[in-house]
Design goal:
Length: about 170
């Protein structure tokens, strides 16, 4: 039971900026330091890295990482390094991932989110010598569980109405 693939409308740069801003604002909320709270900036960066690699690349990921470093008061460059690697890996696999359904895409996104967290933990262990514990990695599992919702929400403005005009082939 394959569903047809519809041609999407071009994405607006304002919508990309809005989605990254909303993700940053969600990370600013007090729940961002709870165990299991996903990194919304990382999720949105992966999404745009897969769906629009020419518009959201490594430079945007580095900038968002610096913003998160300032917000978290961590070592300057910790999140920037993790997000740039995340963006690079997402851009590297974007052609392959787009062929899969959303749930299989989530399985491809899981190692990316896990690698991002592993880099953050490695930098923290090197700098402070404190390991946050294995429960820290639950954040990646929650992020993967949210992947279908994030995909649906961020692709919604690009979808065309089904059978909007019967005289046009597209």
């Amino acid at each position: 039971m394959n569903r047809p693939h519809y041609i999407l409308l071009p994405v607006s740069p304002l919508f990309i900026t809005f989605s990254l801003t909303c993700a940053f604002m969600l990370n600013l909320l007090p729940w961002g330091h709870w165990i299991g709270a996903p990194d919304f900036v990382a999720l949105v960066l992966v999404f745009w890295g897969i769906h629009q690699p020419r518009k959201v690349g490594i430079g945007v990921a580095f900038f968002m990482g610096l913003l998160m470093d300032v917000h978290d008061a961590t070592l300057l460059g910790e999140n920037a390094l993790a997000y740039t690697l995340l963006s690079y890996l997402a851009i590297m696999i974007h052609r392959r991932v787009l062929w899969f359904p959303v749930l299989t895409q989530a399985l491809h996104v899981f190692p990316l989110l896990l690698a991002t967290q592993a880099i953050q933990v490695i930098v923290r262990v090197i700098v402070s010598g404190k390991f946050p514990g294995w429960m820290y990695f639950i954040e990646s599992v929650v992020g993967v569980a949210l992947w279908p919702v994030i995909t649906w929400m961020l692709l919604a403005p690009q979808r065309r109405a089904v059978d909007r005009d019967h005289t046009r082939p597209i």
